[in-house]
Amino acid sequence: MGYIKIELDKVNAWYGDNHVLKDLSLSIFEKSVTAIIGPSGCGKSTLLRVINRLHETVEGARVSGRVLLDGKNIYDDDIDPVDIRRRIGMIFQQPVAFPHLSIYDNVAIGLKLNGFKDKAMLDKMVEESLREAALWDEVRSRLMDKGISLSGGQKQRLAIARAIALKPEVILMDEPTSSLDPVAGAKIEDLIINLKRNYTIILVTHNIQQAARVADYIAFLYMGRLIEFGPARRVLESPEIELTEKYLTGEFG
Amino acid sequence: MKQYKNYFSGEKIWRTICFSSIILIIIVFFMFIISLAWGSARSIYEYGINFLINVNWDPVFHRFGAIPFIYGTLLTSILALILAFPISMGVAIASSELLPKKISMVLDPFVELMAAIPSIVYGMWALFILAPFIREFLGPALKRYLGSIPLFQGPLTGYGYLTASIILFIMILPIISSLSREALKAVPREITEMALAIGATRWEAIRIKIGVAKAGIFGAVILGFARALGETMAVLLVIGNKPIVSISLFSSGATIASVLANEYPEAVSDPIYLSALNELALILLGLSLILNLIFLRIMRRHIGGKM
């Protein structure tokens, strides 16, 4: 196995009184795709949001335990969550573009927030990011159009371009294809496979076939607990835990 | 066959009632415009463009120029807006972004209640509390520290543009605050989370949110401005009611709305005087209509717009 990029150590998370993640420990390997699967409400999304410290921005949300990024706990007092979010990008379930910004600015905004001002440099980085997100050819002639003029699949690739413009080390994806049509979804899947050469990807999905197509590792969550974790093929073909097998065979979910 | 029967009995009556209601509204609206235009006809014919560029308003000698009132209306409204906008944004951001939900749920109704206070009550307060306060404290202080600026020179009675502007500012504050707050609240949580996820600080995320909500906020400003333009009672009580143009904010003045309310009783016996007032009313109606149309356009686009 490879280098451990992220390690969760006895992580608990709450929304108010709702205990969403329970003593969850998990290792994420560098430059691989780890799929988080499990039934609705099992804590998949919360797990992602704990990793980039977005969880705590919701009123009444709490976390305990350690999340180590390159061995350093991101919940230490000397860590600024803003820096963590710059190193860990995130793609959301709903394909949303900033509606008041052009396609160009939708990608450049993260760079501008980080103090990039040089126009030539920005142009170059926006183009690179859009190319890497396989969107450049579709938008190159209309970069100044508003981001809302794009289709759902394009918006999702725009979100990926926005995230990778910041050269993150990790990309979190929260069911990125669930509101897309199959063709647009397939493009995102191809993109994920390409992106793992440069980034560590954690993919939340409710789609087991998708996990089978793109994931190197699979973590199965149930009611806030990690039930099973291992190489994707092993988990899918011969799950060690009965609950995992039941979920994979569609007995519940 | 059964559907036909329903159509001719119940449905037709309801359809007729609904259609007549909307036709009634349209008739009333055009009746307003036509009767105002008809009432202004003589003044328009007699004075033409002079009415809009003449600085003198002297009913006794039948000299009618609208400039003092247009000036007074725009000056007080714009000043009120300049004061109200930053504070409204503060209120809107505090309520939608900074305060815990439990507290903002308690505080928000106060803003709405402020909008519900009748304008005569604002006017009385301005007359008995605000005007003396400006005469005794705020005015002298402004004179002392900013007296080199012509805006703050001249005699200080407490009744004038400044007092009118401040009471207008207080009156439009709740409208702009609550509409801006709703515009901010209408921005989906995803926008904030997306901003945070690319490393925006909390303030940067709020700035992005304001960018998304700016059409709605602009609409709030337009509506507040329209209210300031048309406000009559509170202004009438504190502006001093003199048809003059003065650069000094301490000076008495008049607005279109205040002169209409103030001078109608005298004008009823003098047809050309009455016609001139009608023309002023037409100008005010025109200004308000244009602003409201802008507001409607913005809101429609804002609400119709997708993320």
Description:
The complex is a heterodimer of chains A (253) and B (307). Chain A has a single domain (4-248), classed as P-loop containing nucleotide triphosphate hydrolases (Rossmann fold, 3-Layer(aba) Sandwich), CATH 3.40.50. Chain A contains ten helices and ten strands. Chain A has helices at 44-51, 81-87, 103-113, 119-132, 136-139, 152-165, 182-195, 208-214, 232-237, 242-248, and strands at residues 4-15, 18-29, 33-37, 61-69, 72-73, 88-91, 170-174, 200-204, 217-222, 225-231. The two termini of chain A are 30 Å apart. In chain A, 47% of the residues are buried. In chain B, strands 1-2 form a two-stranded antiparallel ribbon. In chain B, helix 3 (67-98) runs antiparallel to helix 9, helix 7 packs across helix 8 (202-212) and helix 9 runs antiparallel to helix 12 (271-304). Chain B contains twelve helices and two strands, in the order H-H-E-E-H-H-H-H-H-H-H-H-H-H. Chain B has one domain (68-304): Orthogonal Bundle (MetI-like fold). Chain B has helices spanning 2-47, 50-53, 67-98, 101-116, 119-146, 161-185, 189-197, 202-212, 214-230, 233-238, 256-267, 271-304; strands at 57-58, 63-64. Chain B has 307 residues and is mainly α. In chain B, strand 1 (57-58) and strand 2 (63-64) form a beta hairpin. The interface between A and B is medium-sized, with 27 and 22 residues.
CATH class identity of chain A? Alpha Beta
Tell me the distance between the termini of chain A.
Answer: 30 Å
Q: What is the CATH class of chain B?
A: Mainly Alpha
The SSE string of chain A, one letter per element, is EEEHEEHEHHHHEHEHEEHH
CATH architecture of chain B: Orthogonal Bundle
What is the tally of beta strands of chain A? 10
Strand content of chain B: under 5%
Q: What's the rounded overall pLDDT mean of chain A?
A: 94
Question: How many helical stretches of chain A?
Answer: 10
CATH architecture of chain A: 3-Layer(aba) Sandwich
Per DSSP E runs of 2 or more residues, the count of β-strands of chain B stands at 2
Mean pLDDT of chain B: 91
Evaluate the radius of gyration of chain A: 18 Å
SSE order of chain B in H/E notation? HHEEHHHHHHHHHH
* Widest sheet, order of strands of chain A: 6-7-8-3-9-10
CATH topology descriptor of chain B: MetI-like fold
Helical content class of chain A: 25-40%
Helix/strand-derived category of chain B reads mainly alpha
